Amino acid sequence: MQLHIPQVLTADQLGHFQTRLDQADWQDGRITAGYQSAQAKQNRQLRESDPLAIELGGIVEAAVLGHPTFFSAALPRHIYPPLFNRYGIGEQFDYHVDNAVRYDRRRQPPLPVRTDLSCTLFLSEPDSYDGGGLVIRDRYGTHTVKLPAGDLLLYPATSLHKVEPVTRGARTACFFWLQSMVRQDSQRELLFELDVNIQTLTAQDHADPAVLLNLTGIYHNLLRQWVGE
Ligand SMILES: O=C(O)CCC(=O)C(=O)O
Ligand SMILES: [Fe+2]
């Protein structure tokens, strides 16, 4: 499932991010690439140990964990520390697949994080740059996504994806991976749909409370069956 989650950052947070990232110490993006993706990758990134990446990454992590739609769709167990990238004119990231496991070095010993879901939080307004679409190829086809600044795309980390060359301006984003409590995309999607419908009923004045109680019970019992170790 691909999900567009609007306004993960407030306008104030977004302005703060843009100002700070304009003055950041951008490095060659291949610092975090594996062998295959290093061939495909031409962009810039903040070092994982850059204090700015750690500070802004912490704000992103808190924002997504407190966002009900994100939480319900991703059911996060562990978020890999968010990273920041920038594509200037002529830069791109051709088709690649993300590493299946990344090691969170905030933990000692480093914690292996299985990358079930990938996220891109767009930080540049779409009319400030040309190109730079995030293209995702899954079994239903190829989708090109370019979202307003502050919005996030959640997509399965199993999909091949690329970022098209930027031809005007610059595209800045925050990106990260997470391990979900529910490994299977299909199970996570059913839980999300059930939750969305329960929330819709809850908001209605005349929903039967006994039915709502049963549906909530079904949600939790499915989650109990599917949640991994
Ligand atoms: O910039 C993006 O939206 C995605 C970046 C990406 O795919 C990666 O770094 O693996
Ligand atoms: Fe990627």
UniProtKB/TrEMBL annotation:
<keyword id="KW-0560">Oxidoreductase</keyword>
<feature type="domain" description="Fe2OG dioxygenase">
    <location>
        <begin position="78"/>
        <end position="180"/>
    </location>
</feature>
<dbReference type="InterPro" id="IPR023550">
    <property type="entry name" value="PKHD_hydroxylase"/>
</dbReference>
<keyword id="KW-0479">Metal-binding</keyword>
<feature type="binding site">
    <location>
        <position position="171"/>
    </location>
    <ligand>
        <name>2-oxoglutarate</name>
    </ligand>
</feature>
<protein>
    <submittedName>
        <fullName>Putative iron-regulated protein</fullName>
    </submittedName>
</protein>
<feature type="binding site">
    <location>
        <position position="161"/>
    </location>
    <ligand>
        <name>Fe cation</name>
    </ligand>
</feature>
<keyword id="KW-0223">Dioxygenase</keyword>
<dbReference type="GO" id="GO:0006879">
    <property type="term" value="P:intracellular iron ion homeostasis"/>
</dbReference>
<dbReference type="GO" id="GO:0005506">
    <property type="term" value="F:iron ion binding"/>
</dbReference>
<keyword id="KW-0847">Vitamin C</keyword>
<dbReference type="Pfam" id="PF13640">
    <property type="entry name" value="2OG-FeII_Oxy_3"/>
</dbReference>
<dbReference type="InterPro" id="IPR005123">
    <property type="entry name" value="Oxoglu/Fe-dep_dioxygenase_dom"/>
</dbReference>
<dbReference type="InterPro" id="IPR044862">
    <property type="entry name" value="Pro_4_hyd_alph_FE2OG_OXY"/>
</dbReference>
<dbReference type="GO" id="GO:0006974">
    <property type="term" value="P:DNA damage response"/>
</dbReference>
<keyword id="KW-0408">Iron</keyword>
<feature type="binding site">
    <location>
        <position position="98"/>
    </location>
    <ligand>
        <name>Fe cation</name>
    </ligand>
</feature>
<feature type="binding site">
    <location>
        <position position="96"/>
    </location>
    <ligand>
        <name>Fe cation</name>
    </ligand>
</feature>
<dbReference type="GO" id="GO:0016706">
    <property type="term" value="F:2-oxoglutarate-dependent dioxygenase activity"/>
</dbReference>
<dbReference type="InterPro" id="IPR041097">
    <property type="entry name" value="PKHD_C"/>
</dbReference>
<dbReference type="InterPro" id="IPR006620">
    <property type="entry name" value="Pro_4_hyd_alph"/>
</dbReference>
<dbReference type="GO" id="GO:0031418">
    <property type="term" value="F:L-ascorbic acid binding"/>
</dbReference>
<dbReference type="Pfam" id="PF18331">
    <property type="entry name" value="PKHD_C"/>
</dbReference>
